[in-house]
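Give me the fold.
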Amino acid sequence: MRVVIVGATGNIGTSVIEALAGDAQIDEIVGIARRMPAEEPPGVRWERADVRTDELESLFHGADVVVHLAWLFQPTHQPLTTWRANVGGTERVLRAVAAAQVPALVYASSVGAYSPCDDDRRVPESWPTDGWPAAGYMREKAYVERLLDRFEAEYPDRRVVRMRPAFSFRREAASEQRRLFLGPLLPNRLVRPGVMPILLLPRGLRFQAVHSRDVGKAYALAVTTQARGPFNLAAEPVVDRAALGAALGARTVEVPPMLVRTALATGWHARLVPASPDLFDAMLHLPLMDTGRARAELGWQPRFSSEEAIHHMLGGLRSGAGSDTPPLDPHAGGPLRIHEFTTGMGIREDAALRV
């Protein structure tokens, strides 16, 4: 098989490459990214391309599967920029897949595509995918689901898989995720167990998590089997206030969500944190996903628990861990994180491109 991975240098892209690299069914992996990795892993051929502007069809010719992972999280203050990259870029990928007659597409959707759910039922893949429209990330993920609906209707002979993972963590992605969502003001030492005696958490916070390497394995299974349709991906247990307190060695105290939102909104409008308050609102209303379909039809079984995934991420934050691709580069923020300050958190695209 020849597999083309669009957006191959990020958290999930590198995990997918790791999972596919040892599979005897894979003859060639082509990694597509805007910025090339410092070191090229064996068995991967790299091509530089931007889904917004570059010709893609020729890169897809001869592929058995295209895995589309490219996504721009920042700048949150410039929603047209992320829309053009994520929605417009995905439209261009779909047109190129069709023109190159690629028989299968595996797309990186998300739990963020799902409509809100305020109780703890486990929702299947049939749950509505209208997102939380106020948050750019959720709005774009939901819109792309409609693009895929249209693509499947127009090309019923193509095999389309939609992966909907929970929050995906691993040690090597910790620095990238801090830059994208927490910003440069978070000291690494603050996440050491016992440093924070009290942890203030919004009432009702609970979410699912999964290790990025387990997500990579699920993608590999989708590539090498005849699976179709959407798959929820999450590990157990659900992460709640007690689990976060145990991970940080802190006593937790519930506070009204509006108090946390107000503080976050103040920081976001002041350009002190990159994550928007709308993203916080959406997170509080995410559904809990039923992962039975992935386990039954893909044969997927996560190796790591959700608590282990969070521990790995926190360990990576403490040590400033990363990898040798541009998105995962632990030094991308510059000395003393100067690039993160000077390019503007969530304001300019060059800030997003640096990370």
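Confidence is low (pLDDT under 50) at residues 351-355.
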